[in-house]
Amino acid sequence: MERKILRVGNVFVAGGLPTITYNPRVNLSLETKLEDYLDEGHRILSVSGSTKTGKTVLVRSNISQGEGIWLSGGAITSIDGFWDSLAEHLGLYTSIELTADSKDEAWQTRSGQLNLAAAKGTLESKEITGSNRGEKLARSRNIATQVREALRGSLSPLIIDDFHYIPQAIQTEIVRSLKDLVFDGLRVIVIAVPHRAYDVVRVEREMTGRVQQIEVGFWSQEELAGIARKGFEALNLSDKDEALIERLAEESFASPHLMQDFCLQLCKSNGFRQTQPETQDLFAPDWGNFFKERASMASKSAFDLLARGPRQRTDRKERELKSGQVTDIYGAVLAAIAKTGPRTELTYEEIRSALRDALASDLPQRHEVTRVLEEMTKIATNEIEGEPVVDYDIELATLYISDPYFAFFLRWGGQQNP
């Protein structure tokens, strides 16, 4: 049987919707849970998972853009903007215009003599004269009312991706305005990072018991390996003892997004850009250079912004690391986080313990460390595009590294940039 020729970029898709290497993670029954929700409804479904763990891919693989109404939370900055976006998707008109016309007509006759060499006669012409009168009545329709009417009878689910990007006050208005529609059967799916998964309940207590959760979660080594196996088979490439697959999975920070990217780059580093006519073996690259090159492209700009802090200052106290490098408190905190692996969820006490391991000088005070973590969160939210790479929850005293690419950079690129 002749193999279909596929481009490597269509097999390993980092940042898009994979088809050949899509892994439904059958053991978690994610697709079944999503299908059950679509059958049953009468609740809001919250699909949660860390950045680049496949939340959107899961929903989009089962609900195409033509089947659902997709909104991006990052584009919703007001409740009016929310209704406007929905009106656009639904093709609604925002005003009604009535026109009344009347016409007065009169016939006017003109006559004259026709005198030509070949003939003589009388020429008579008639034309219509008169006037037109009209009036227009216009009435603007309330957009929210229109959208609600359209959604009430809609069989299409409403999906709000990156729900956590929406300001909390706007989240409250959205949830309250959709509550009765959900009761009437509208399917509403919100996609969020895990520590914001219960935002729907936080902003509207009456939704307690009316929110269903699907937690995508981090990927296991075996699930990540499944991506590589499917892709290599489609390209007719071989990793006999799966040593390469194992190494890529270990460095992927439980992210299918990173695994897709690593597999893509491994194929290209071996010179393969499409399906091979005969099975070809893959060989390991220089792993150090391979991962450092990926790190340099990933999150250096985000790292630099966090390491700089809220503004450039020359009077920050110098902090000496046990590596011999000298930095300030922002660089020291990042170095401490990196020493944990880095782990993607760290309590304050764990960060303080990591600082003790990283610093050769005295430990900073608690209020100094928490201030740095809060400032980093502000920078990640306001100055770095996309989902915040770090997010410090003051109430839980816990730091979340939301972006596996940033965690990967701390591991492979951050040591050179204290």
Tell me the number of structural domains: 3
Shape: globular
Query: What's the CATH topology name of the largest domain?
Result: Rossmann fold
**Largest sheet composition:** 5 strands, parallel
Rounded to the nearest angstrom, the radius of gyration is 31 Å
DSSP E strands, number? 14
- Straight-line distance between termini: 55 Å
Brief descriptors of the model:
418 residues; 3 domains; 5-stranded parallel sheet; Rossmann fold; 3-stranded antiparallel sheet
Note down, in words, how this protein is organized.
The chain has 418 residues and is α/β, with parallel strands linked by helices. The longest helix is centred in the last third of the chain and has 17 residues, at 366-382. The model is unreliable at 114-119 (pLDDT under 50). It folds into 3 domains: 8-13 and 219-285; 26-91 and 144-215, 3-Layer(aba) Sandwich (Rossmann fold), CATH 3.40.50; 300-416, no CATH class. It is built from 16 helices and 14 strands. A hairpin with a 5-residue loop joins strand 10 (319-320) and strand 11. The chain has helices at residues 8-11, 30-40, 55-62, 79-90, 143-152, 168-183, 199-203, 221-235, 243-250, 256-269, 287-298, 300-308, 329-339, 348-358, 366-382, 404-412; strands at 44-48, 69-72, 95-115, 120-140, 158-161, 188-192, 211-215, 237-238, 280-281, 319-320, 326-327, 345-347, 390-393, 398-401. The strands form 5 sheets. A 5-stranded parallel sheet has the order 2-5-6-1-7, sandwiched between helices. The two termini are 55 Å apart.
